[in-house]
Description:
10 helices, 5 strands, two-stranded antiparallel ribbon, 225 residues, mainly alpha, 10% strand
Amino acid sequence: MRGPLRTGEQTATFLRGTADHRLSALWVLLAHTGARRGEILGSSWDDVDLDAIELHIRRALAVVAHQVHPGDTKTADSVRTVALDARSVDVLRAHRKRQAAERLALGAGWADTGLVFTTPTGEWLHPERVSRTFGELAARLGLPVIRLHDLRHGWATAALTAGLPLEVVSDRLGHRTTAITADVYSHVQPEVQGDAAERVAALFAGSSTGSRWQSVGSGRHGPGR
Length: 225
């Protein structure tokens, strides 16, 4: 029975259980950025700026009739810059060292694709094989039968539940419009709305709400929007 990673605990269980896996950095990056599988697999080291703590998503690997085709992102709006968190930076640094060791050991046999995530010989990873590996690892850890794409859904659900603005989530996911994000994640909206209602009610109930109310009313769009 298929089901997404519904809780942060499940995602944490997967990441802890795969910390020693060769592709552990890939799992962390997918879980922490909400990026698409092909976008991360198509990223080169030139797209990664660990000093600026950013990942520039410019291209992707696609699968057509089981064949891998490097190319553009899903849409023009999918070209974007994604901020990285400290853990992602740490695992990427460790992954780069591991990849450098593999390259050194292989010598002239290394395929210099420049990609962040490769086979042990430097070639691109087949997205479908990566998804199968993910499913096998999740099953070994006793997690539900899930897709790799559910890491993206898990990030978006967590972000919206945590109160991140829809515009921020939409930009990070690379959606063309916020309407797409709102439609795909409509199941999260009741929970977000309930949380918002409680927060506003708490504002009104406070004994010293002056400065807090001013901060709400002085936003970019003003109190009329």
